[in-house]
Fold each of these.
Amino acid sequence: MGEVVGRSAAMADFDFDSATAAAATTTATRVRLPVAHMVCNGSPPAGGKPSLMTFREVETLFHEAGHALQHVLSTVDEGFCAGIRNIAWDAVEVPSQFMENFVYVYVLVCFACLFAYE
């Protein structure tokens, strides 16, 4: 997961267009919202069969999605403290581990059986 833009009240004025800036009347209501991106590599198609993700690839995708969610859903308005910055490493891993467990419990059971080979 890569951070593109962190949440910040201090940098809010640089990201608003004129209509949004006019709508935000106080400094407290103006906040630059965070942006994150995930770049993933998947298994290529082989032997005429479609490209399907391995369980480890799905697990990694959900793990990184946990980091992205923590970054994007941050409510801290100080840029250097928002998202996954300046918090204990164990706290950074909590959403990622939660998302991995989601894969084990729900994704594997509910969605892994949806594709059938001919």
Note: The chain has a mean pLDDT of 75.
Amino acid sequence: MTKRFLTLKDIENKIVDGKLHLEKNAILSYSVKDYLTEKDIKVIYGTEQENLVSKKEECCVEQQENLEKNRDISKIIEKLLRNDFGIQDKIKIEQITRIVKEVLK
């Protein structure tokens, strides 16, 4: 994929509703960057579909990280209850863990 250098002349007709949609490989000249900043025009790289896929991937990564943190918190609470408070009843541990996690939200 080759990069494409764009000037003001190249982008003038591509601005729609305050947005400029460009291919991922586009390179903007300094004058274009200044113009876009001055006119408060948002630059969107890639197709709308690519951007949606990217956002979905970010969301999935964030959800996975939250699940891992949640598991880690549960393990820490269980260890604390078993070792420091001598609670061995699995049902009580689950109840307390649920309450603690609710308070932490």
Note: The mean pLDDT is 83.
Amino acid sequence: MGFESTLQYTEHVAREVHLRTGMLPHINAGVMGEDDLRRLKTVSASQGLMLESTSKRLMQPGGAHHGERLCLTASFSPLR
């Protein structure tokens, strides 16, 4: 469909849901940057975050999030 990222696709789908139904979805897309949060705020009722996606332990080999690119970024701190 021509989207550069999963978050662009998510934004598009959320906008379509709102236009077609009048409902605002809840988006639980994980760790996002400030720009992504601002964009999704316009098309959703809330943005969720599963804190386990920020666990360094779960990102180690054998962990549930090993190899995930969207988990814990250098600019994200769950204690901000």
Note: Residues 73-80 have pLDDT under 50 and may be disordered.
